[in-house]
Write a structure and sequence with these properties.
By secondary structure, this protein is of the alpha+beta class. The chain has one domain: FAD/NAD(P)-binding domain (3-Layer(bba) Sandwich). The chain has 13 helices and 20 strands. The protein has helices at about 10-20, 45-55, 60-65, 90-95, 105-115, 165-170, 245-250, 260, 305-320, 325-350, 350-355, 360-370, 375-385; strands spanning about 5, 25-30, 40-45, 65-70, 70-75, 80-85, 100-105, 120-125, 130-135, 140-145, 150, 155, 175-190, 200-205, 210-215, 220-230, 240, 270-275, 280-285, 285-290. The strands form 4 sheets. The protein has an 8-stranded mixed sheet with strand order 6-5-14-15-16-13-18-17. Helix 1 runs parallel beside helix 9, helix 2 packs across helix 3 and helix 2 (about 45-55) runs parallel beside helix 9. It is globular and about 65 Å long.
Length: about 400
C-alpha cells in the first residue's frame, strides 16, 4: 500500500483522496485552514463531471441535492432577444448519459468530505500549510510552514492556483491577470419575480464588453448571480465588496437584464486570473492536479469537472502500482491529461470573444448561433460534456 500525500483539501484534493483510496492506497490530505470547509457560490457540473463523481461513489448523492438544468439559455442583454438555447433534457441526457446540474460549491465539497471521513484509508489533517517538497528514490516529503515534514510514496499538489507545490515544480511566478472583473451575489429566490426565475436554466445575457450569468442553487432556494466586466484592470484582488450602485452602473448596457441585476445586493468582486498551460506537471514522485496544474477562467464551466477527471484518472493509474512504478504512473497521468485541459484553458479565455462584441459584430454572432440546430449545438460541446474518464479498478501496466 502506497501513501499518497495530497496538498490541498478542496474539491480536487478530496476527490483525489477518494480515488487513490479506492485503488488500495492510503491518502493523507493536508489543508491549510483550521477546518475542512469550502466557500464560494454555485458551480456547474456537466455530464463529464458527474461521471467522474460516479466513479468516486458519490454521484448519486450529488444528483440528489443538485438542481437539474433544462437548458443553457443565451440572451442578448441589450435587445432582450432570446438567441438560442442548448437543450439539456431527454436528447442531451441520452447522448451524454447524465444530466447537467448546478450545485453550491459547499454542497459538493461536503459530499466529498463526508465520503473521506467515512473512509478508513483517508486521513485529514487541518492547519497544515504546505510550503514545498523534497524527495529521494523511494519517498516524497511535504514541507509545512510550522516545520513539520510529512512523507509518503508520492505527493500530489492540489493546492490551487497559488500552489506551493507548483511554485517548486514549475516556478512560473504569479498567475496571469485577465483584465476581467467578476461581480458575484446570491439572493433568495423568493425575492425574484416569477417571470425572472428561470428555475431550470443557466442564463447568459451578453453585452458589449460584459455579460451576466445566473442560475438557481441550493435546491432552487437561491439565485446565483455572476456578472463579468472586461474592464482592463491590471492588479489581482479577491472578495472585495462594492456598493450596489456601482454594480448597476458597470452593467448598465445590459438593459434587458436590468430588473434582475438590480435585485443583487452585497456584491463582491474578483479579478479573474489563470495561468498558461505548461508541459511539466510532474517531478519524480510529485504531480500537480486541478487548479495547481491547469487553472482556467470559469467561462467554460469546467474547472471542477476537470479536477474530478484528474482525480479519477490518477486513481486508476495508481491502482496496483508498486513503489518503483509510481513515478512512471504519474508521468502517464500527466500525459493523458495535459492536452485536454490545455484546450479547455484556451477555450475559457477565448469565450469572451463570443459574449462581449457590440453592434454589428453582436448581430452577426446572434445570427450565427440562432442558425445552429439542437444537434449542432450539442456537437459543439460533445468533446467536453461527453468525455468519460477510465474507471478505477482497471489495471494499468507499470
Amino acid at each position: 500500500m502506497a501513501v499518497i500525500v495530497i496538498a490541498g483539501g478542496g474539491i480536487g484534493g478530496l476527490a483525489t483522496a477518494l480515488a487513490v483510496a479506492a485503488g488500495g492506497h492510503r491518502a493523507v490530505v493536508l489543508e491549510r485552514a483550521e477546518e475542512f470547509a469550502e466557500i464560494g457560490a454555485g458551480i456547474q457540473l456537466a455530464p463529464n463531471g458527474l461521471h467522474a463523481l460516479d466513479a468516486l461513489g458519490v454521484g448519486a448523492r450529488v444528483r440528489g441535492s443538485a438542481v437539474h438544468m433544462d437548458e443553457l439559455r443565451f440572451m442578448d442583454g441589450v435587445t432582450g432577444e432570446h438567441v438560442t438555447s442548448l437543450g439539456l433534457t431527454a436528447d442531451y441526457r441520452d447522448r451524454f448519459g447524465s444530466p447537467y446540474v448546478v450545485v453550491h460549491r459547499a454542497e459538493l465539497h461536503q459530499v466529498l468530505l463526508d465520503a473521506c471521513l467515512a473512509a478508513d484509508s483517508v486521513e485529514l489533517v487541518a492547519g497544515a500549510t504546505v510550503t514545498g517538497y523534497e524527495q529521494d528514490d523511494r519517498t516524497a516529503t511535504v514541507l509545512l510552514a510550522d516545520g513539520r515534514r510529512i512523507s509518503g510514496t508520492a505527493v500530489i499538489g492540489a493546492d490551487g492556483i497559488h500552489s506551493a507545490i507548483r511554485g517548486r515544480l514549475v516556478g512560473d511566478g504569479e498567475p496571469r491577470v485577465s483584465g476581467i472583473t467578476v461581480y458575484r451575489a446570491v439572493i433568495p429566490m423568493e425575492r425574484v419575480p416569477v417571470h425572472l426565475r428561470f428555475p431550470r436554466s443557466v442564463v447568459w445575457w451578453a453585452g458589449p464588453g460584459c455579460h451576466f450569468v445566473h442560475y438557481p442553487i441550493a435546491g432552487g432556494r437561491y439565485l446565483n448571480l455572476a456578472a463579468s466586466s472586461d474592464d482592463g484592470r491590471t492588479e489581482a484582488f479577491a472578495g472585495v465588496p462594492v456598493d450596489t450602485q456601482r454594480a448597476r452602473r458597470e452593467f448598465a448596457t445590459l438593459r434587458a437584464a436590468r430588473e434582475l441585476l438590480e435585485l443583487g445586493e452585497d456584491w463582491k468582486t474578483w479579478m479573474l486570473v489563470d495561468r498558461d498551460p505548461v508541459p511539466q506537471w510532474t517531478d519524480g514522485r510529485v504531480a500537480l492536479l486541478g487548479d495547481a496544474a491547469h487553472p482556467m477562467l470559469h467561462y467554460a464551466a469546467q474547472g471542477a469537472c476537470q479536477a474530478l477527471e484528474d482525480a479519477v484518472t490518477l486513481g486508476c493509474l495508481l491502482e496496483g502500482g508498486t513503489n518503483s512504478a509510481i513515478p512512471g504512473r504519474l508521468t502517464a497521468y500527466a500525459r493523458l491529461r495535459r492536452e485536454r485541459t490545455a484546450r479547455i484553458q484556451h477555450i475559457a479565455r477565448e469565450s469572451t470573444r463570443l459574449w462581449h462584441p457590440a453592434g454589428a459584430a453582436a448581430t452577426a454572432r446572434n445570427a450565427m448561433l440562432s442558425e445552429l440546430s439542437p444537434r449542432e449545438l450539442q456537437d459543439q460541446v460533445a468533446w467536453m460534456h461527453g468525455f468519460q474518464v477510465a474507471q478505477p479498478g482497471k489495471e494499468v501496466a507499470a
